[in-house]
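Record type: monomer structure entry
Structure origin: computed from sequence
Chain ID: A
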Amino acid sequence: MRAQNIFIVGPMGAGKSTVGRQLADALSYVFKDSDLEIQRRTGVDIPTIFEFEGESGFRARERQVIQDLVAEDRIVLATGGGAVLSAENRQDLAARGVVIYLHCSAEQQYARTARDRSRPLLDTTDPLARLRELMEERDPLYRQVADMVVSTEKRGTGSVVKEIVRRLETEDV
């Protein structure tokens, strides 16, 4: 396995943070979450950043955090769902580690995020339609940057982590 770092991309609700934590444990890597790092640095939650700085302000903060984190070694990084919108982020992720796209349907995302009030992009009258729009926009970017695509649709975390570890060991990624 050539990976010094493993970067997880995918939509909200795909399991990036949950899978990332367990994957880091399985590989004896350090787990990092770009959204948690943004919150740690600012001292406020993501919805507050969106409220005061808008999505563009949040994306600028996200860009800086990802730029800093990809320079570390032996980390599993769970990125925010929109991190791939930045060409610079995609370039940094692809250059500094193995990128894993955790994929699941908009319906699965909705089921997993329906009661979560910390997702400003879902603060809309039809969150499922919004998830479908986001997937249509972002799926090509996730696939463009990914070395590996792994489905989390109706799967437990342990099963997903085992698949990733096996594929990291057996595939030329």
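Annotation 1: Residues 6-165 form a domain with the Rossmann fold fold (CATH 3.40.50.300).
Annotation 2: The mean pLDDT is 93.
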